[in-house]
Structure formats: structure tokens, C-alpha cells
Amino acid sequence: MPIHPEWHTYTINVSIPQSYDAVEPLDLEEFLMSQLRSGDSALMQELGDFPDDDLEVELVEKECRTVRHSVPEEGVELDSHVRDCVQSYTQPWLMSLLLQVKSPSLAVLSDDSSRTLTSSDFDLRSGLTPDPRVEGLLHFSNHDDLDRFNQEARQVNRHPELFALYPPADEEDAVEIRPIPDCPKEHMGDRIIIRCQAIKFEIDVEPLFATLALYDLREKKKISENFYCDLNSDQFKGFLKPHTPQTDHSTLSRAAIFSITYPSPDIYLVIKIEKVLQQGEISDCAEPYMVMKETDSAKNKEKLEKLRNQSEMFCQRLGRYRMPFAWATVNIMNVISTATLDRDTTDSDSLNGVCKSSSLEKRGQLPRRNSERFGTMEDQCNMSAFKPATITISTFCKQEGDRLSDEDLFKFLADIKKFSSLQRRIKTIPGTIRLDVTPVHDNPVACLSTELIPVKPLAEKNVRPVKEVLEFPSSEVYVPHSTYRNLLYVYPQRLNFVNRLTSGGRNITIKIQFMSGEDPSCVMPVIFGKSNGPEFVQEVYTPVTYHNKSPDFYEEVKMVLPARLTERHHLLFTFYHISCQQKQNQTGASETLIGYSWLPILSTDRLQTGQYCLPIALDRLPVNYSLHSPERITPQVPPVKWMESHKGVFNLEIQAVSSVHTQDNHLERFFTLCHALEGGVTFPLRVREEKIPENKLEHELKLSIISLSSSRLEPLVLYLHLVLDKLFTLIMQPMVIAGQTANLAQIAFESVVSIVNSLHNSQELARDQQGRNGLLATYLYWVFRLNHRTRCHGPGGVGPPTEGRYSTMGRASATTVGTMLLQSRLRSSSNPDIPAPHSAEDTEVKNILSAKGQNNPGSRMSTYVDVSSHPQSSTGGTRPSNRKQFHEELALQIVVSTGVCRENAYKYAWFFFELLVKSMAQHVSQLEKQDVPRRSRFSDRFKDDVTTIVSVVTAEIGTILVKQQKELEQAEKVNISLAFFLYDLLSLMDRGFVFILVKNYCNQMSTKTVSMPTLISMRLEFLRILCSHEHYLNLSLYFSSPASAPVSPCPSISSQVSLARSLSSPVSLALSPPPSRSVVGGVLRVLLHCLTCNQSTTFLSHCFSTLRALVVKFGDLLFEEEAEQCADLCQKVLQHCSSPVDGNRSQACATLYLIMRYSFSSNFSRVKMQVTMSLASLVGKSSDFHEEYLRRSLRTILAYAEEDTEMQNTPLPSQVDELLRNLNSILSDTVKMREFQEDPEMLMDLMYRIAKGYQTSPDLRLTWLQNMAEKHKNRKCFTESAMCLVHAAALVAEYLSMLEDHKYLPVGSVTFQNISPNVLEESAVSDDILSPDEDGVCSGQYFTTSGLVGLLKQAAELFSNGGLYETVNEVYKIIMPVLEAHRDFRELVSTHEKLQRAFDNIIQKGHKRMFGTYFRVGFYGAKFGDLDEQEFVYKEPGITHLPEISHRLENFYSQCFGDALEMIKDSKDIDRSKLDANKAYIQITYVEPFFDDYEMKDRLTNFEKNFNLRRFMYTTPFTKAGRPRGELNEQYKRKTILTTMHTFPYIKTRINVIQKEEFDLTPIEVAIEDMQKKTRELAVATHREQPDAKMLQMLLQGSVGATVNQGPLEVAQVFLNEIPADPKLFRHHNKLRLCFKEFIMRCGEAVEKNKHLITLDQKEYQQELKKNYNRLRENLRPMLERKIPELYKPIKPRLGNR
Fold first, then answer.
1. Which domain holds residue 1555?
2. Quick one: pLDDT at residue 596?
3. Which helix (H) or strand (E) holds 145?
4. Helix, strand or coil for residue 448?
5. How many CB atoms lie within 10 A of CB 46?
6. According to the UniProt entry, which residue ranges have a biased composition of type Polar residues (predicted)?
7. Theoretical Cys-Cys bridge with 1534: which of 329, 1014, 1352, 1516, CB 3.0 to 4.6 Å?
8. Whether residue 1310 is found in the same domain as residue 1335
């Protein structure tokens, strides 16, 4: 076995030289060429050539969340900047994939519309195809043949030596692993979905409209756009038909997805309610809602009808206008953070966001801000894992007409936070809002983006959409744009008409339009519509505040901006007074014009955003008004009348959310000047307020490039990809401006360096473990590409001569370069103006560059090439081109950079190295690689520059180590980046050249005067990265002679080779009979260890062959003597059965089948148990098992059993089949458990099935029963938890009875049947389980007497917590004999005390104890999978109402199926033919325990009537006409009796229904049953030992009270008034008559009883009761005294033959 040395534990006193000369590397490419020519070409080709796919430059389509990319409208000519943006957001990613480092998958899991809730268990035979079987597995006649076959197999393709027994690297310590950055994507915060379920007021008389938005109180900022919805009935929608031209599907949404980037405890959801404008103040319009109730229909019927008629009238006349009405709020973060609490929101809690949680629980993300502010909330609240919650808000605040602004709203919210409730000064309106809040993990079906583009996955049919609501983050977001978005938000804020003298203008609305010109036809339909209307509209009106001359507005107008904006585009505001009351003979419009204002969209070609205060023009708009702002309009003839003498009276705010308009001066200037270079512009060029002539363009462009780093960080990051693309274009392409070549490359490069430095220094942005800025790494990996468009000729349109090309910067002479670099080294890094002292390192840099100068004398104007005079040389040196190569220019800029630019370029060398590599990869991919040798891919000049860069970077590392010890980490990062650079170059360049660079690095580093451990660490990390190259081994072969082991990253290859040679000895010994037990065990341990390590497929194949040989030859010895090893063997083999590698899986299956086959005769039971336990361990604990492969392996093993002809006449095939089916079931259920963590019933079903699957493995069954008990306990289902422990105790008792024969111990599970008959299932133990003491099973702590007692004591405690005190007694009946036998008097004292408490509780709590409530739940629809057509009885806590369980199940399953779920409200039988196959249906019915008469004799107490329940009943009323309800003489009732598989309480809270019986009651039988029930209730209440006066009076009121006595009386009049004509009804008639006699008698007793219970102030009440009773008795008397003669004839005796 390989030994892994722990280097840090040894101190080796070896003299290591401080410096050394590295081995002179081979000229690899030349060597390979000579070998190919010499004849051994095949081997050289295999070892020397890298695979064709070693370098791939591929385009990967961008994943698009929506069905199409968000792009500008078709047919519009875009300007250059917009075109570049759109191209950047839609073009594919370009990735250079080196050395098989493939990109992460871009595919996302598609939503499978046919997905079912649970998948049926696989049928191993029909559902899967087995893997190929191992050839000849069962065909060896003797052991020698098997050994010979295995030995020959081991020799096939065997290497002479054993390579690289190297353990896998520790991920945290693996510097050679370079993280792949996440794919760029649109930023999203934590997302929640809010569904509007109900908005109800006390009266329902008119349409209402809701607006939802999020507000951050701490930041005083609105953090989302508005979401509009309404829940108006069709009747109310009809009121608005004249004003609703169409209703688009997208406007029907009632659910919205909100995003929260920066969670804060002060985020509030605000719901504003509006109504159609009508006459009157808000208070007047709200009054009916505050004083009237729909439920008082008799009292308010006429008033409500009048209000509806008024509403209809206002809707038809003023339906386009709205008015503020009410608002409500909830702290959404409180809801999320408390969503694990199971309680309803109360009135007092509602404003603070307390919620009721339901049963479902359901970032390489944005770099978080480092401030404490954004850390607090994240710790308190997990935004993505809270339980879905239902918010019920039961109080609305009335809107105040003078307090409508956002400032007022924030004051209200601050008060609510401060005082935890509404203040008295806020008027409230009773009503209810019910909202469901759930976390969003994947996009729901039928979702629309904020631009209303459908988001994947699409809905199967026309379902109500869910809208994504755009977030306005409370702070900066540093994620580059990746989608086209161009939205404008207009916020009218305030209007001041107070000083206006005229009387008009009190009910003011503003019509807002987006215009492309001044003609009325130029209005554009770009405004997003609201709810239940058109998707886009041309105009929108602000809500009206009645009789207010200076109204505040809260409207948000969302628009999509045209991609191409002109000076004519503007916002037009038209101000109207609205006449609310239609005057007599008035037929005209209700609008009276007040005036106009406008705002040009562009100002000096820049989008206008921010705060504005505009004047208002009266009567008419000025001519050409759109070309000027209203403040600066030119004088007109005739003059324009202005309100308030042209003062600003209209305040508004404009905000843009755009990935096109940068809204940053520096970026806009840069992009504008860059696009000027592309031509098509006229000079002088206008940029903001400036006019730039052509001869100044280069100067201004340089200034704009320099000022890029002055941009604010957020816009710079948002447009980072576009900025870097432009700068790299300027570096690569010569720019000719006004006929002159512009020298822009150097300044563009310096700007790139400055941006790279800024991003690295920002505390806001994340870095990876190698110090790389995440945004830059992402750009390089996914975005950067060479721009191959023809070079720009500049605005003058004149290009350079075609015969050559010019660089953007001449290369200085070597001497000059050396001087420049030396000068930069002599400057202080903190202040370039302060000279630094000379050092040896400065001299080193000078020497490097001097050497370069000697090799290349003179000036290097490298980028001018005359194509005609430079034919390609055969040696492949410089490849002439009429176009600059980016990698050459970039390398040149790095070499000649100076000062701070140079410092930062080398400090963040990783960026420029990776940029070089990706550009080189693109260059190589464009060459014909097969025709261009490696040495000819890059010019000699470029190689010189790379050599210089590597040398200078190495010198930099040394400088940091010598002079700046505090910067050691920085040196390590630069060292790692240099190593990765050379690593990448091995795949691109002449490898001999790269080896020279490695040698130079080693030699340079060895000369540094730094501490030896630091130096060794740096060199080892460098070499470790290089040695991780995929083709490292091939490359190393050329550096080693046959006598020496190759250089390797792994320790002691030589020793491991020796170990490999010696491995054959123990194996040979093991395979030579007869071996000793210890030898076989030792070999097995070695083989098992080999299976644990990462091994090749070939090695594993031989390892499994050897294992099978051991099993065949020494199976008995293994299974008998090596029980522990056998268990380990089963687990390791089963683990490989889940391998995704076909060969490994095939070998493991063959081995496992042989283990079963050769253990069958004597030890199969043990193997079954160990395989089952291994599966449990693998599925429960292993993170790398693959379910689908494991299932396929089970099928393959089954195939072996079916094909094993020798064993067909034995029970083996059936036993294997049974075992595999059991394993398959366990596998399915355990995997499903992960999906159903938040469905408690399904989770318990799965745990139950798993526990049942371990029936033959008592240890595991006990563990799962305890797991179930813990789950139940956590849900406060104490009774079910106790039952799990009782079952566990019965299981222990079964196995104890095999070991010990003591009278004080229970005789297996039969002793427990007094607790529950269900426990008998624990006796169903497989006959072939060996006895516990021999088998090594049942050896845990619980399989002892004390373990049994411990389980029972826990169960008793839980029964007590659950209120089942009688069961506590039964449990202690089993415990006490054990305690008495052990003379444990202390425990006996404690036991009797607990029993006394239990009995006291029975006496004290009596009938007040609440037991479970039961419901029948049926599931229908293929989407439910296994649950389809299944019926269950659910046990819920006491006093659970039908709406509660219905809401809980609806909440959970709607998460699974969305709108496809439908709740069936009635209890009628389900007709499957009438159900929609694409829907899932749930039917819930309340059921009661049902007992036959004979059972009632034994079930006397309330406990007995609620324990061991197996039959339940529910009734369904119906009439022959098909209606559920009818008159008394039409009313039938169907009784349905359900029988469950087990009795309640059980170890689950739901049990399958296995039998259903139905019988119908006729109307008279229904009446009999009702009267018997009333009579029983009266009797019980009257004769109770401790009478309950309130209960008795309530029953009396329902029986004889003046308001209800028509109930019993009417029943009697319908059924007893006349004797029925049908003799069959005689007995029913008589039975009902007798029922009434008893009923009236019980009423009399109750009235008398009440007489003794009343207080003095209830005497009048008692007299009234007595009077009503007498009246009822007298009315019933005639009917009760009438007998049917036939029923009372004397019975004649029969005369028989005597």
C-alpha cells in the first residue's frame, strides 16, 4: 500500500544549496521532428502530440431566461452605442477551453409538465435494461482455470511499471485548481412570490383596485416598482366595460415575484386600494364601509342596492379616473423571519407582519456590501428557505387626502414600527387582505418578465400569469448588464394651484403621454397598462383628490423607451378638472382643460432623469414646444399664457432603469467619442454642452479614456464588458483621425490597468481564493473576444496606405526601455515623485532589459510590415500580416509600461496573463493547426516580449520577498498567476521555449536572498501547478533517462514502483490453498482498501476479479470467520454498483452476485442483512452515489440470477428477487424523502415504508422507528411519537424472547396489544433471520432489558404529553414486572408517582380533554403518481376545522402543481370521466369515529371513544333532484363508512382507507336521527355530575327557544301530522313519534335543571324558557298521542298441532 508522507512531521537535517542551475531543457519540437524522421514515428506521435481537442475555442449560446431575448423593436435603425449594447447582450459567449478544462453546463433543468408528485417504484424487470454481464463469470469448472484466466487478464496492456499512486489533492490546498467563474447573468436578489388571494370589505358594492410595492423604511426608499391587481367580480368588471377596450392576458395576474437584494428588518409591503372617482371626500366615500355590513342584509339591503346603482353610474361616466381610498401594510421581513411559527395573524399583529405558516418549507451571487448594515438581516432570516406563509391583514387605513406622498407614507410606517400598532389619529376601515408568501427557487410556470416577455418554462395552457416585479435596490448593485432593458418611470409628485384666482381646478388629474412629435397622432403606446385592461396604453390619468387645489400624487407611470430617441421625443402632461356631478342637461365630457406642461426626453443628447419643477402653459401649447424645456421656451406671438407668471408649479421625478443609457458623464463621453471614430458623424461634434472639431477629437478621446477611472463604481461595473471591449479595440486597431495615425494604444492600456486596479481595490467586490477579481475573471472567461472587424478609418474617412500598417506606438530602443523601467523602479510605490534607494533588484531589472537591448539593437517599429517584401520564411519566424495581432500589441504594452501603470500591471499580472492566453488561443484557432508547427505560431519578437515579461515578473516576486515581507501573500498570488501562464502556454506555444522560461524562473528564484522555507514553498507551488498539466507525464519523459524515475509532483514514485512489484506475493499466497484465516483476512483488507482509493478502471477490474476468486475459493471461511470484513465488503462493492463508469459498475455487479451465490447454502441471511444495511448507509450518508446507476445495477444482478442455469432449481433466484425488490423499494423511498421534507404526511409514509423494508434488519428498523418518533415529536404529534417507541419496544421484546426466557419479560409483541393491536406487526419477522447472539445483529444498546425499559418509559412520557393517560397505565404494566424482578424500588416509587399523576389527570380533566379530529382526504389525477385515487383518513390536532386542513394541503400542493390543483368542495363520489386529465384534485371531508351498537357497550369513556379507531363515517346530504339540500320531506342522507388499514393512533398520522360501505337514509330516517341526536345531547347535559349552565342553556335555546322552536315543530308537522299511506313507513312514523316523546320529556328535565342553575338576574329568561317549552309541548301533543292502530294490535298466539 502506498505510504503518504506527512512532510510537516519530520525535521530532516540535509544541506540544501541556496542556489542551483536547473537542467538545460530539451528543444522538444526539434527532438520530436528528428524522432519522427528516424522511424519510431508512431510512439513519438502518441507521446508528443496533444489531442486535437486540447485547445477549443467555441461559441456557446447564451442561456435566455425568457422565450426570446429582450431586444429593441424591429425596423428601427439603431445608433452605434445601442447596437453595440444589444450585440453585447445577445451574442454567444466565446470560451477558450484549454486542456479539457470544460465549461460548466449552461443547461438548466427544464420544467417537466408531466412531472408527478411521486414516481411509482421502478419495476426492475420492465423499467430497466441490465448492463452487459462479465464474460464467463459462471463457467469455470475448477479454481485453477479461474486463476489462470485472471492472471492472463492482468497481463493484457500492462505497463512495466506502476505509475502515480498519488492520493487526490485536498481542494483547499490545491493551488493547481483554477476556479471557473460563474456565467454572467441578470442580477436577481432573493426572490419571493406574493399571491393575492382575497381583498374583502364589509360591503361589496363597487370595483376596487390594488397596488402592491415594497418600501425600505430604513433607507426611506421605494425598492420595487408597482404591481397592479384586482379581484373584482364579473359584475363589477362589466361596470367598467365602456372604458376597457380590451383585456390582455398579461394583465390578469394576481401573483408577483418581488426581488430583495439587501434584506433589512424594515422592509414593508404596502397595499394601496383605489376606487373609481365619485363625488365626495375620501371620508364620505369610506363611511358606508365603516358602518355597514353585507351580513346585515335585511337591515341594509336597500342601502346596499342604492350604493351599487350609484357605483355603476359613476363607473360608466368616470370609469377612467381613480381616487385614493385605503391602504394597508405588513412588515414583510417579519413575515419571513417568523414563517416557521405555526400561528395565525391576529388583528393586533397584522401591521407587524405576523403570519400563519403552512406545511411547506420549502449566491457566486452579487458581491455583498461589507457594512454591518447588510449583514444583520441575513443572519436573522434565510430568504430562500422560509416556510410559505399566509398573511391576513384585517385592518385598512383610510387614505388622507392631504397625506398621500411617499414622505407621508414613511412617517406612517415609522409610527407603526415605533408603536407596534396604528395610532388613534389614523382612521381605519374593517376589511381583510389575504396574501400568500413563498420563496422562489425556480421560475414558476406562466411567468412574465418585467418587460412582459414570457419566462421559461411556459405554461401548457392559458393559466393566470405571474409577473416579475422590477427591484429598485436600496443600494448599489455591482453586476454588469447582461440583458437589454430600457424602462422609464415617471413620478408626478406635487401640484400647487393654491394661488390661482379662478374657481376651477379642484378635482385635478394629469393625463400623461409619451410623444414622438407634437401632433396628437404622435402619441406612442409605450405605457404599461394596469390590471384587467390593455397590456400597453397611450395615456394614463393620475388619481383625483376631491376638492384639492394642491394635491400630492403617488402614481408611478412605467414606460418602455424607444431604442432610438430624437429631440422630438417628450413627455406631455395635460391637466384637467374633473366634474364629479353631472349637471342637468349636461351631455359633454366631464373633463375641463386647465393647462399643459412637457419635458423633452433628451437634453443635449442625454436622457433626462432626476427631479423637475415645471411651469404650466394655459390654453394652448407653444409652437415647436418639444424642442425646448418649458422653463426656456422662446417668446411666441401671440404670447403664451403661463400659470403663476411662468413659475414652476408641477413637481415630478423621472427615473430610468436602462442598460443602454449609462447616466454617467464620463462613460457617455467615452462611448460617444469612440463611436465618432466609426464615421457617419458631422463636425463639430456635440458632446453635452461642448462642440468638438475634428482636429481636437484625438485629444478629447484621450481625455475621456483617462477619465474613465473617475466614473462612479456602479455604472463602471454595469458597463464593464462594453468599456473593456472598446479599450481593447483601441489597443488593437490603428485609428486614423483626420489623415493622421492616432497614438491611442498606450493610453488605452493604461486605462485598462487603472480600471483593473480600481476593481481590485474596491471593498465592495468579491475575489476568489487566488485573489482574482470575480468580475474581471468572468469577463475574460466568458466575454472577451478579438474584434475582427475592419479597422476604423476615423471620421475623415481616409484610410492608411494599403501596403503596410502602423502601430499605435513605436517601440523605444532597448536602452530607452531599460531606462524607463529602471526609472519606474526608482520611484516610491506610494508616491511616484519620491525617489527610492537603489537595490540589487533594481540592477537585476536593468540587466534583464539591457540584455534584451543587446539582442535587438536599434528601434523596434515592429508593427509596420511590408507584405510584398517579407515572404514567409521556412523556419516560421515572424508571420507577416496586414493586421496587428492583439497578443503582440498587449505584450508590447506590458513590456514598455512605466511608473504606477507598470506596478499595477505586474501586481495584477493574472489578468493580463489570462488576457494574453485567451487572445493567443483565438489566434491559434484561426490558424490551420495541422499545417502550422508550434514554433511558427508566434513571432520571435512576441517570444522575446514574453521572455521579458516572465523575467520581470519573477524579479518582481523576488523584490517583494526581499523588501516587503508584509506583502508575502501578494508575492504568492503573482507566483501562482505566473505558473498558470506558463501552464497555459504549454498548450499554445513551442514547448521547448516554455521549458526555457521554466528554467529561467528556477535559476532566478534560486539567487534570491530570502528564507529557505519561503523560497522552497514558492518554487514548489510553481512546479506543482505546472505538474498538474494534463500532458505533464508525456512532457516529463523527455527529461528522464531509463535509469531515473521521472520528476513528479507525487512523493516517492520510486518507492511506490517497488511496492507495486512486491504486491504479487500476498495475492499469490492467498490464491494458493490452503491459506490460514489470517492470510485471507489480510488479503481481503488490502483489496478493500484498494476499493476505497481512487483507482483506474483497469485496476478495479483486476481487483474485483481477485475478490471474486477469494469468494469462490474461500467463501465459507470469509462468511463464517470474517463477519466484520464481509459487511465492509458488501458496502464497498455496493458503492461501486452506483458508479457512473460502466466498466466499474459491471465488475461490482458480478462480484455482488457471486457473494450472494456462494453464501446461499449457509450464510445468505447474513449477506441479505449486510447488503440491506450497506444500502441504508450508502443512501443516507454518501454524497456521491447515483440512484439511476444503482438501480441499473440491481437489474443487472437480477439478470445474473435469471441466467444462472445451475441455480434455477434452487430457491436462490426467488430469494435474490425478493432481496432486490426490497432494496429497490428502500432506494426509491429514501431518495423521495429528500423531495418531501416539507410534506409531513408523505415524509412519514416514506419513512414508514423504509422502516418496513428493514423488517429483516432489526437494528435498522429500530433506528428508523426512532427517527419517525423524533419527527413526530418535533411536530408535537406526541401520541404518534409514543406509538413509534412502543413498536420499537415490541421489536426489542421479540428479539429478547429469543435470547432470554424470563417470566418478567414480555412474550414478544403480543404483550403490547392492549396498548394497540397495530403492534402485532412487529412479530412479522422473516424465518431465516439467524438468532441474534450468533448473527451479530440486535447488538445495539436497545436490545437489552434496560433498553426495553428505556424505550417504554420514553413512550409513557410522550403518551402523557399527548393526553392519553389511560395508555400510560398500560405501558407501565409491562415495565413494572421488570422493575419488581430487579428489586428496583427507587424506580418503582417513581413509576407509581407517574401513574398517580396520570390517574389524577383523568379525574380532573374529564370530558374537557380534546382528542384528534379526523378527515377523509382523496387524491385524484395522474399528477399525483402513487397517490392517484388513494383515500386516506388524516388525524389532525383537536379542534381542527375543515378550512384549516384544506388550506394547509392546498398551500403545499399548489407549490407542486400551481394552477393545475383544484380543491373539490363537496363530499360527493368522484366521477373520473368528468375530471381534467391535466389537473390534480383533492377532496377533503370531515369524518367522525363510527361504532356498531355492540361496540358502544365497551366504549364508555370519552377516551375509549377516541382510541383504537378504525372505522369512520361521514354523511352526504342529497335530494332526488340532484341538489344537496331541499325541503324536509325531500332531504335524503347518504352515510359512508370507511375502514382503515390500521387503527388510530398509529405510527403515522394518515392511514389508507381499505374499505368503503354506503347506505342511504330516507327523509323520515334523517329526521329520526336528528331528533335522537338532540335528545342525547340534552340528556347528557342535564345529568352531568357537574352541570355546565352555559352548555345547557345553549341546547335549550336550540330546542325550545322562541326563535328556533320552528325547527323541531316543523319536523313534527312534516312527518307526524298525518299517518303515512305506505304501511312500510308505519314503523318509521312510530319511531319518530317516540323520539319526540322522549325529546319533549328531556326538554322538561332540562328546563327544571336550569331553574336550579340560574342566577338572580336570569329569572325572566327562565320564565321565557318555561313558556316556550309549554307552547312546544302543547303544539306537539296531538301528533304525539296519535298512534297507528296496526302497530298495536294484540299478537294472536299461534295454534300448533299438539
1. 1410-1561
2. 95
3. helix 143-155
4. strand
5. 9
6. 852-880
7. 1516
8. yes
Same domain, 1384 and 1317: yes
Whether residue 436 is found in the same domain as residue 536: no
775 falls within a domain? no
Other beta carbons within 10 Å of 1172: 22
- Smallest CA-to-CA distance from 1331 within 1212, 1169, 1218, 1128 is with 1169
The answer on 327 and 419 residing in a single domain is: yes
Clarify whether residues 1434 and 1384 are in a common domain.
no
Number of domains into which the chain is organized: 6
- Residue 61 class from Cβ within 10 Å (0-12 exposed, 13-18 middle, 19+ buried)? exposed
- Percent helix, strand and coil across the chain, each to the nearest 5: 45, 15, 40
Q: Which residues contact 1585 (CB under 8 A, 6 or more apart)?
A: none
Dihedral, 663, 669, 670, 675 alpha carbons, nearest 10: 110
Concatenated DSSP letters of 1100-1123: HHHHHHHHHHHHHHHHHHHHHH-H
pLDDT of residue 227: 97
Q: Tell me, yes or no, whether 1233 and 1243 share the same domain.
A: no
Contact 927, 937 (CB under 8 A): yes
346, exposed or middle or buried, with CB in 10 Å at 0-12, 13-18, 19+? exposed
CATH code at 1307? Answer: 1.25.40.410
Q: Which residue has the cell 421656451?
A: 633
Q: What is the pLDDT of residues 384-416, one digit of tens each?
A: 778 889 999 988 999 998 899 999 999 999 988
Residue 525 resides in a domain: yes
pLDDT at 102 over 60: no
Residues 593/576, Cβ–Cβ less than 8 Å: yes
Give the long-range contacts of residues 641-645, CB within 8 A, separation 24 or more. 641/617, 642/615, 642/616, 642/617, 642/618, 643/497, 643/500, 643/595, 643/615, 643/616, 643/617, 643/618, 644/496, 644/499, 644/500, 644/615, 644/616
Looking at 1219, 1237, 1255, which one is the last position of a domain? 1237
- Dihedral, CA of residue 792, residue 607, residue 600 and residue 214, to nearest 10: 150
- Tell me the angle at which helices 1626-1653 and 1563-1582 cross, rounded to the nearest 10 degrees: 20
Average pLDDT over residues 1518-1534: 87
| Distance, CA of 891 to CA of 765 (rounded, Å) | 27
Are 1401 and 1419 members of one domain?
A: no
The pLDDT, as a whole number, for residue 580 is 87
**Residues 268, 270, 272: CA angle, nearest 5 degrees:** 175
975's CB contacts (< 8 A; 6+ apart) are 957, 1018, 1021, 1022
State which amino acid sits at residue 872.
Q
Nearest residue to 608 (alpha-carbon basis) of 631, 634, 583, 581: 631
Residue 1367 lies inside a defined structural domain of this protein: yes
The whole-number pLDDT of residue 565 equals: 94
Q: Does residue 1041 register a pLDDT over 50?
A: no
Q: Give 435-454 pLDDT, tens digit per residue.
A: 999 999 888 889 999 999 99
Residue 494 host element (H or E): strand 486-495
Q: What is the mean pLDDT of the chain?
A: 80
Q: What are phi and psi of 737, to 5 degrees?
A: -115, 120
Phi, psi angles (nearest 5°) of residue 483: -135, 155
Q: Does any domain span residue 240?
A: yes
Question: What is the tens place of the pLDDT at every residue in 29-45?
Answer: 777 777 766 655 665 66
Helix (H, G, I), strand (E, B) or coil at 1497: coil
Report the DSSP pairing between strands 527-528 and 536-537: antiparallel
Which stretch of 577-581, 968-972, 1257-1261 has the lowest confidence by average pLDDT? Answer: 1257-1261
Helix (H) or strand (E) holding 418: helix 406-419
Which of 1561, 1581, 1614 represents a domain boundary (last residue)? 1561
Non-local (6+) Cβ contacts of 242 within 8 A are: 316, 319
The verdict on 1473 and 1336 lying in the same domain is no
> How many helices, marked H, and strands, marked E, lie in the chain?
50, 38
